[in-house]
Every structure is written in C-alpha cells, then in structure tokens.
Design a protein that fits this description.
Elements: H1 2-34, H2 41-60, E1 63-69, E2 80-83, H3 89-97, E3 102-107, H4 116-123, E4 125-127, H5 132-147, E5 151-154, H6 173-181, E6 185-190, H7 193-196, E7 207-213, H8 227-245
Parallel strand pairs: 1-7, 2-5, 2-6, 3-4, 3-5
Antiparallel strand pairs: 6-7
Organism: Chitinophaga agri
GO molecular function: 1-acylglycerol-3-phosphate O-acyltransferase activity
Protein name: 1-acyl-sn-glycerol-3-phosphate acyltransferase
Length: about 250
C-alpha cells in the first residue's frame, strides 16, 4: 500500500508547489506597487494580497483551518502575538488567521530568495541576529509599528522546534518589547502545522490546522525587572494548553 501511495503523494506535492507559486506570482505585481506607499500603509495593503493567497492555497491543497477562541475574538486591541513554531507552514497560516494589521519578525536570510524577497521585505520586520546594531534597528521598527496600531507576531522560541518537547525555551525579545511599549501579549498556538508540514522535510499532507487564541496577558505597569517572570508565565500558559491537546 505504501508503494502505491508514494507516487500519489509525489503528484500531490508537485501540485501543491505549482499552485503555491502560481498564486504567489499573481500577487507580486500589486504587492510591488503597494510597496511605494510606505512601510505602514503599503505594508498593510500587502497583507490583503497575502491573505487572498493563503485563503486560496490552503483549501486548494486540502488543508482546513479551524479557529478556536478562548477570549473575545472581536477585541481590536493591538497585541504582541507570541506563537509556537513547529513548521515552515506557520508563516503561511499566520497571514490568514492573525487579525490585520500585523507584522511578523523574520530572519533577514529569507530576503535573499529571488521574487519572494519583494514580498518579504514589505511584509515582515527583518532581523539580523548576527549583528547587534541590526537587531537594535529591528526592535526600533517593531516599536514604531506598535505605536502605529500594528500588532507584532514573534516566534519566541527563535527557530522551528524540531525536538520532542512541546516548546523550546523562549528568548527575551518579545517580552522586552511588550514591556517597553506596554503592549499586551496574546499567546497563540498552531496545533497541527508540524503534522501537515514537518520542519525537517518538505512533506506536506492534507488535513486540519487548528489555531488556538489564548487569553491576553496584560503587561501594564511591568518593568524590565519583571521580564523573567512574564516570560515564564507565558511559557507556562502555552505549555499547559499544548499538554491539554496532546
């Protein structure tokens, strides 16, 4: 049976890749034009095209997205979203399920991919972790976005979690920015992305992708002295929910 399914899966993977790229190339021209409108206004417009791409591609490849709200879904407060990171599918899902406007923090290395970099540099706050000055610039850009009413999405584990652990230790960056800007943190969990597309290989499968929006964590009045406790609080909230869904 596995020998029969393998060729079918290869055809499915080829089909998914072609559809992915076809939609992407359709939206590149309007995204290029939107980029002339500036980082905030132009970037916000870019996300409507990315949302179209995501809403088209996911059902086309047999992936159904289910949202689970554990707080008021009509809340319009700008948040600093912290999300677990299990798959390369996470970014594609984010543009569909995170409330607009928002910007994710992304690795600067992705800006080297031809054609895709037109989208990337207008859709994310890029960070170069090898350069202290560049990291500081990224932080200033995120703070400026938050003050414009744009939410920020950060994967606090720093990279995709390829281990058996539910979560990897969190970095300080998200919590430092939340305290500095007094922006509430909303933990979000992508429960099935690692099953749909594992971080260790390009092996997409159809099925469900559940997204859980956990209650926000307020940071009003917190200082940098509270950062370790805040980071642990958010980690515990996310880990506890993940354990409950296993």
């Amino acid at each position: 049976m596995k020998l029969l399914l393998k060729p079918l899966h290869l055809v499915y993977m080829l089909y998914a890749s072609i559809v992915f790229l076809a939609i992407m190339f359709i939206i590149i021209p309007p995204i290029f034009l939107a980029s002339f409108l500036g980082k905030v206004k132009g970037g916000n417009i870019v996300y409507y095209f990315l949302r179209f791409w995501s809403h088209t591609w996911f059902p086309a490849v047999g992936i159904r997205v289910k949202r689970i709200y554990k707080h008021d879904k009509n809340d319009q407060t700008p948040y600093l979203y912290v999300v677990n990171h299990r798959s390369y599918l996470d970014a594609a899902l984010a543009v569909q399920v995170m409330r607009l406007p928002f910007r994710p923090l992304g690795k600067i290395e992705m800006n080297k991919i031809p054609a895709f970099n037109i989208i990337y540099r207008n859709a994310v706050v890029m960070v170069d972790r090898s350069n202290a000055r560049a990291r500081a610039t990224s932080v200033r850009e995120m703070i400026a976005m938050i003050r414009e009413g744009v939410s920020i999405l950060i994967f606090p584990e720093g990279t995709t979690n390829e281990t058996e652990s539910l979560l990897q230790p969190f970095h300080n960056g998200a919590f430092r920015i939340a305290i500095e800007t007094q922006t509430p943190i909303q933990p979000v969990l992508y429960l099935d992305n690692g099953k749909r597309l594992h971080a260790k290989g390009f092996n997409l499968t159809p099925g469900i992708c559940r997204v859980v929006y956990l209650p926000p964590v307020p940071v009003t009045g917190l200082t940098m002295d509270d950062l370790p406790a805040l980071k642990q609080q958010v980690f515990d909230i996310m880990e506890r929910e993940l354990k409950a869904t296993v």
